[in-house]
Amino acid sequence: MFAVIESGGKQHRVAEGDVVKLEKLNLADDGSAPVPGSSVRFDHILMMSNEGQVLAGTPHVKGGVVEGELVSEGRGKKVRIIKFKRRKNYLRRQGHRQSYSEVRITKIEMPTAST
User: I need a surface site. Which of 2, 7, 31, 49 has the fewest CB within 10 A?
Assistant: First the structure.
């Protein structure tokens, strides 16, 4: 069984037990930092499959459930950006580290009746 979810503007194919790196998730409503072990529920499910039965959403699957648990948060490797124009005395250097959340998928549930 697997599902295709949308998170952070990207699509991810996930199965139960998978650990995926997603764009940083804002889980806490009160503004505090999320704690590892917090539960995550994904609402934007694009497609689900179970033993040959495929369910595609238009645009999202209604009634499907994908839940996970926050494992950790961190920042990726630094990406260096260099802008350079020869003979124009122009050189700009910049760096960027993208924040991410690691989530372990704990449950995938297909809807009981198709509507």
Answer: 31
Task: Please choose, from the candidates 62, 67, 70, 58, the residue with its C-alpha nearest in 3D space to the C-alpha of residue 25.
Answer: 70
Strand pairing class (99-109; 79-85): unpaired
**Measured between alpha carbons, how far is 18 from 27 in angstroms, rounded to an integer?**
20
User: In the structure, how many helices (H) and strands (E) does the chain have?
Assistant: 0, 10
- Helix intervals (H) in 26-95: none
- pLDDT digits 0-9 by tens, 28-82: 667 666 788 889 999 899 999 988 889 898 889 998 899 999 999 999 999 999 9
Mapped onto helix, strand or coil, the DSSP state of residue 113 is coil
Assess contact for 62 and 46: CB atoms under 8 A.
no
